[in-house]
Write a structure and sequence with these properties.
Largest sheet: none
Low-confidence stretches: 1-17
Strand content: under 5%
Mean pLDDT: 78
Structural class: mainly alpha
Helix content: 40-55%
Length: 91
């Protein structure tokens, strides 16, 4: 449901099984973004779960040297406008 709304579920039908953050995200979202599927998500999770801290730092640092990309700090309140602008430009 959008806007953070949830449906009330009677206690007798609620699951007592623990969920992972990924499960919670998929329950809320309901589907994968275009170009993504469960296999791709699992590959990405496996990649980051298997990284050492040094490998993660090296990957982050390498991203700053990628040609054709610019990193900048954006105030939180402007992020939605920037995301919308990027979506229009790439779409």
């Amino acid at each position: 449901m959008e806007g953070g709304a949830t449906l009330a579920t009677p206690l007798s039908t609620q699951s007592t099984q623990a969920t992972t953050p990924k499960d919670d995200m998929m329950t809320k979202q309901g589907e994968f973004p275009p170009g993504w599927d469960e296999e791709r998500v699992e590959r990405v999770l496996a990649h980051y779960d298997s990284q050492t801290e040094a490998e993660a730092v090296a990957e982050d640092e390498a991203a700053y040297e990628h040609p054709g990309q610019t990193f900048m700090e954006v105030p939180h309140q402007l992020v939605p406008a920037v995301v919308e602008l990027l979506a229009k430009k790439s779409g």
